[in-house]
Amino acid sequence: MILLTFNIINSDAESNNSVEISTSDRTKITQDKTNLILKILNYHDIKASFFIEISIIEKLKTLIKAISAQGHEIAFYNKDSTLTKIENIKKQTEELLQKQIRGIRQKEIKYPLEDLKSLEFNYVSNIDNSNILFPFKRLKRDTEILEDNGVSIVPESISPYSQLPYNDFVFQALPMTYYQNMVFETLKSEEFVLIYINSWQFTDFKKNGLKVPFYRCYNSGKKMEDKLDALLTFINEKELATSRMKDYIF
Hints:
Blueprint: E1 2-8, E2 14-15, H1 23-44, E3 49-53, H2 61-69, E4 73-78, H3 83-97, E5 103-106, H4 113-118, E6 123-124, E7 146-148, E8 151-153, H5 168-173, H6 176-186, E9 193-198, E10 210-211, H7 214-217, H8 222-237, H9 245-249
Parallel strand pairs: 1-3, 1-9, 3-4, 4-5, 5-6, 6-8
Antiparallel strand pairs: 2-10, 7-8
Helix pairs in contact: 1-8
């Protein structure tokens, strides 16, 4: 099973000129790139899970409704929000969608499972806080979904052959043919492959006046669109099963 997920978060890249890019402008870029992702998914008739960063959810209500209406899952991405903020936004979003928010993704700040359970989250999908060398280290980690205190813990996926994680940078950096083979081979020995990609990776950084390291510019923008399209084409041609996170776990 392929669990395709997208982190909908604003880029925190510095401005490339003397004019600072406002938060609203960054959110507009995020919205535009998410709509682009939705078009690609719709073309291939593949459903995914969208982890929306909590601080921008209130500004993306129309987008969130569109994501949900197209059959995708809405979950949360917590960057630095308090538990009280998470609780309030969760209630507001569930009222907006008339659906329960089951999942949350964490990276730098990771709340205990008992706190997440008290907010009625059913699963957590954490991301390792790693530096640029991390994607190319040989890794060994449990890749099975565990349950603790009533909350399912979904680990990052790792290729048992290349030992590369299926994170955002690896998707951007690897040649697509190699990545496709990695997915195909992993599914022969693992029950699922969890892939996550960031919405800001689809940004044309030069056009939008954003300054990012060279390794983050590589294959960004239109090339990321082409890579996502190629991956989804491969999934359908090989008739590989896909699922939203909440459906697979429950």
